[in-house]
Amino acid sequence: MTAAETTTAPVRKRDSERTRAAILKAATREFSANGFSGARTERISALAKCNIRLLYHHFGNKKALYVAAIEAAYEDLRTKEAALVFDYDDPTGCVEQLFRFTFAYFQNNPYFEGLLRTENMMQGKFVRQSKSVPEAAANLKQVLKRIIAAGEAKGEFRPGVDADHLYVTITALSRFHISSSYSLSALLQTDMRSAEWREGWLAHGINLIRAYVRADAGRPGNGSGPAAPVPRSAMAD
Fold first, then answer.
1. CA–CA gap between residue 48 and residue 22 (Å, rounded)
2. Model confidence, pTM
3. How high does pLDDT run on average in the chain?
């Protein structure tokens, strides 16, 4: 290899990585907005500002690109989740911290919600074939089990809190109001997309989660009453 080739090889690699990342970002938007069937690779390459041949060079076909977009979206969530630092001496605080993070993540990543909606409409056809999605969730499961064990050991949590039920509750409270905001806003004659409404929903969710896990839920003076008002800084990354 010549000196020139040695110099240009890392540059080509960086360019290739940037192109791949741009394609994935564009694909996430396209699949989120139009679903798997409605998405078009031509629009993805145009949005990524790359030649469509490069799209197929990196991903092979539309199905592989869709799976890669799903896996990258989950990896982003799990990576940021894994960066959270929990104080296991305060298990109730840990649960609230995880909920606040998840709530903010869905609010700040609407295309992820769109991908989940698309995949669920297809009954999990592609995500069930992925090895990385369940593998990436292994750390989350361990964290949940550790929080629950700490809460039970301190007598702070009731016996039998189910880790899966807890996370499904957290996820539902974090995304249902987003996925159904337009229809429910029309039905209830309110604006569920407003910051004020979502702040109230976050506080409501904290109260519900406390009531689910706490051994003393509902007793006067136990700290499981209405959550403190949520500052807007807690609603975003």
1. 5
2. 0.84
3. 88
